[in-house]
């Protein structure tokens, strides 16, 4: 079974430029998450989708970040414009569904490492 | 709110030594507990989990027991290998499936 796929793996951009990250979750997983991981820290949730609905975006900086999950499968996270402080790893994860026993385990993709110059 | 505290690293061990990485948590209700491992340049991989008190999660020689009375979920392995060198994250899942992670503990195993 294929895991969570993310692209690109690495991205270098200049500040004020836009950037987009793509995620394809595990087949059949209804819940999709985007996390931000700063160097030396644990991941922090940016947004959570249940199918195509964003059910928790309280930590997403909406002035420059946006996300979408069309048709409830793939998702895109965008930053516009990027700032120096956005340099980090952006992780996508998916799970089967809501927190029922055994369905809440999240599976992570390899992440996109962003460097803003 | 929910929080996870891990021992600071790096933890440096010789091959075949015993490993303990401490993890304690604060949460409302009855969270599920997880250990994830992150190898250099890669995403997080689920190592083991426990969903209720006194459950023991185990995988690849690693074990952790969900201790509600001490709010702990310490990771242990009897004999570490060089290939176990990585960053280990303890995490909990609250009522809305959102994971709260600790800051991670780097493990370095030398031959």
Account of the 3D structure:
The complex is a heterodimer of chains A (117) and B (111). Chain A is mostly beta strands and 117 residues long. In chain A, strands 2, 4, 5, 6, 9, 10 and 11 form a 7-stranded mixed sheet that branches. Chain B has 111 residues and is mostly beta strands. In chain B, the strands form 3 sheets. In chain B, strands 2, 5, 6, 10, 11 and 12 form a 6-stranded mixed sheet that branches. Chain B has a 4-stranded antiparallel sheet with strand order 3-9-8-7, with no helix packed on it. At the A-B interface, strand 5, strand 9 and strand 10 of A face strand 5, strand 6 and strand 10 of B.
Keywords:
heterodimer, A: 117 residues, mainly beta, seven-stranded mixed sheet, four-stranded antiparallel sheet, B: mainly beta, 0% helix, globular
Shape of chain B: globular
Q: Uncertain spans of chain A, ≥5 residues at pLDDT below 50?
A: none
* Beta-strand content of chain A: over 45%
- What is the mean predicted local confidence, pLDDT of chain A? 91
Low-confidence stretches of chain B: none
Order of helices and strands of chain A: EEEEEEEEEEE
Tell me the distance between the termini of chain A.
Answer: 37 Å
How many individual helices of chain A? 0
Number of strands of chain A: 11
Oligomer: heterodimer
- Range of helix content of chain A: under 10%
Mean pLDDT of chain B comes to: 93
Counted beta strands of chain B:
12
* Radius of gyration of CA atoms of chain A, rounded to a whole number: 14 Å
Q: What is the terminal-to-terminal distance of chain B?
A: 41 Å
Structural class of chain A: mainly beta
